[in-house]
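[recover] target loaded
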């Protein structure tokens, strides 16, 4: 507790620099990364992250010093050049974009490593710490770095706020953006520039190897929690900022622990958590939803089977044994028993010594399912010209998801039919 309070008080200027810098870099990268993910250009961020290394090295070779502004300009230029090369390769050859990205990434990164090795053997005393751009060293941030990177981070955030609607349209419907006269090409160039800037300002914190994770992971995690772009951006920025502060805290309490990799690891843990436990879109939520649907289908199939058993005589409240139900329709025995108990609790079936029978409410529900099944079979044969002996399986699936609105529409299209393609009576809606 004392350690946390000491960290929060931030009496050490270097702690303030590292924490504020990590939060700004993480949040700004996450905001831009949302548009990168939505435009399906995640790998481009990885290519740019690796392509900035030769820019850093060339800037140092030309100036002989580690001025953050100079290094920023150099890395920005080579990052931009990598995107130009990717576009040229994809537009002027038969090579696909993913292959072009792989080529550019490896070539630029290889050149960067060669230049970095050359600098290390040059004897220049100012080279110390330049290799930190490979894996990042947020702990090395000083006041001058913070001002430079902070200004870029604010520029990124302000640009996104001012052009939010345009970037949103560019991400979801670029054809419509062209139709209404938006300067699509200029907006794409600007968004690409912001992506490059986001990568450039982050490399000192996490390095070129892990920078793509800073750009993509928060956006990917936030995507599981919402369907609204504005909320996605806020969630991604908050996640990334919290992980940035947490990474700085870990580095402060355990000096042997590097800040950048911890930020990425915490973001990855959040992404895994979101992937599994996010409501509606997480694996657990999807599994539970699918299980509910399967159980509902099982119950409706049992009701439908009981209806079919009573249909020849019209005695729908007659009791039928489990064996009679299974003879009519093959169902998993244990799941059928569980479903019958659920139907009984819902008041749709009732149990007697002879077996199971539909209640009045169960009969109405069974009629609805049978009615949808036969309406859909008739629709397939009349409008899609499907043979009548090929429509049953499709109707078995669709009958469970047709809404009352679609049911009404089907009736209108089919002119309120009374029989299905097999000349079996279609139950009327009650």
């Amino acid at each position: 507790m004392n350690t946390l309070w000491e960290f929060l008080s931030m009496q050490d200027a270097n702690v303030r620099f590292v924490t504020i810098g990590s939060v700004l870099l993480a949040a700004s990268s996450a905001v831009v990364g949302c548009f990168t993910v939505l435009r399906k250009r995640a790998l481009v961020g990885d290519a740019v992250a690796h392509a900035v290394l030769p820019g850093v090295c060339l800037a140092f070779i030309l100036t002989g010093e580690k001025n953050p502004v100079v290094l920023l300009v150099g890395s920005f230029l080579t990052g931009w050049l990598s995107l130009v090369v990717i576009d040229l390769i994809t537009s002027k050859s038969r090579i696909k974009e993913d292959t072009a990205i792989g080529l550019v990434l490896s070539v630029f990164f290889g050149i960067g490593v060669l230049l970095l090795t050359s600098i290390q053997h040059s004897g220049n005393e100012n080279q110390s710490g330049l290799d930190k751009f490979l894996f990042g060293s947020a702990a090395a941030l000083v006041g001058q770095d913070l001002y430079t990177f902070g200004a870029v981070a604010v520029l990124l955030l302000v640009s996104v706020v001012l052009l939010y609607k345009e970037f949103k349209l560019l991400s979801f419907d670029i054809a419509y953006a062209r139709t209404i006269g938006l300067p699509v090409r200029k907006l794409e160039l600007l968004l690409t520039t912001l992506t490059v800037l986001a990568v450039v300002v982050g490399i000192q914190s996490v390095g070129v190897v892990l920078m793509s994770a800073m750009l993509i992971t928060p956006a990917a995690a936030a995507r599981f929690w919402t369907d609204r772009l504005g909320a996605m951006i806020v969630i991604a920025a908050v996640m990334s900022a919290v992980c940035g502060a947490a990474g700085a805290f870990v580095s402060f309490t355990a000096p042997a622990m590097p800040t950048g990799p911890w930020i990425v690891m915490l973001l990855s843990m959040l992404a895994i958590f979101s992937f599994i436990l996010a409501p509606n879109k997480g694996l657990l939520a999807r599994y539970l939803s699918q299980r509910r649907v399967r159980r509902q289908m099982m119950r409706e199939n049992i009701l439908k089977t009981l209806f079919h058993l009573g249909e020849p005589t019209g005695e729908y409240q007659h009791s039928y044994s489990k064996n009679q139900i299974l003879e009519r329709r093959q169902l998993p025995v244990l799941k059928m028993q569980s479903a019958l108990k659920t139907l009984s609790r819902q008041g749709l079936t009732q149990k007697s010594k002879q077996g199971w029978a539909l209640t009045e409410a169960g009969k109405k529900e069974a009629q609805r399912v049978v009615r949808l099944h036969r309406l859909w079979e008739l629709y397939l044969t009349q409008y899609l010209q499907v043979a009548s002996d090929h429509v049953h399986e499709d109707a078995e699936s669709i009958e469970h998801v047709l809404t009352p609105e679609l049911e009404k529409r089907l009736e209108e299209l089919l002119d309120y039919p009374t029989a299905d393609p097999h000349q079996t009576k279609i139950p009327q809606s009650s």
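[recover] notes: The chain has three domains: 20-281, 285-358, 367-413.
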